[in-house]
Model the fold of this input.
Amino acid sequence: MNLKLLTRSPSVTKKKTILMTTNQSDNLAKATFGTGCFWCTEALYESLDGVISAVSGYEGGQKANPTYKEVCTGTTGHAECVEVTYDPAKITYQELLEAFFRSHDPTSLNRQGADVGTQYRSVIFYHTDEQKRLAETAKAELDKAGAYTDPIVTEISPATTFYEAEAYHQSYFANNPNQGYCAFVIAPKVDKFKKVFKEKLKSELAY
Done:
């Protein structure tokens, strides 16, 4: 997010909780993606059927327990990203990858629109060897097919420690739809995303 464009609400939202049965929990998987602003990434993934939770946070840096202010300096090495908990019986990792590549510009190095810095890099943090294989294959095939004018610069790295972002960042778009950045940047992307993935959306959305 470009701090010059934002006036943030000081209110703190409640920390997300995931309600599930024991059997459901046993069958869930995790995926972690960074597509720039995590407010937007979270809003998009939360709309998909089969996604149980999308939590905004920081990953890929050197400092333990970084704050949002520290990450915004671009010196900690972290990326703004979202840790997705999903049900593979309802949505596949390949479908999550499709959402990833179609929801942002993966050819833009360390920036998305007005958001500039390594914290906004395009990145996939894989949790298993299979996720790594699928991510690398998708990237290579898209490049080979010439899906984009420029080469894809998406980083594909092993998942490390995920640090959950401050409470007010969670479900930010859902809680602040009229905030400037949400209304003028995120909302149009969400509307476009819903049209592209209309067959994969939850029947009832939180926003």
Summary: The first strand starts at residue 29 and ends at 35. The chain has a mean pLDDT of 89. Strands lie at 29-35, 51-59, 79-86, 111-112, 115-116, 122-126, 155-158, 163-164.
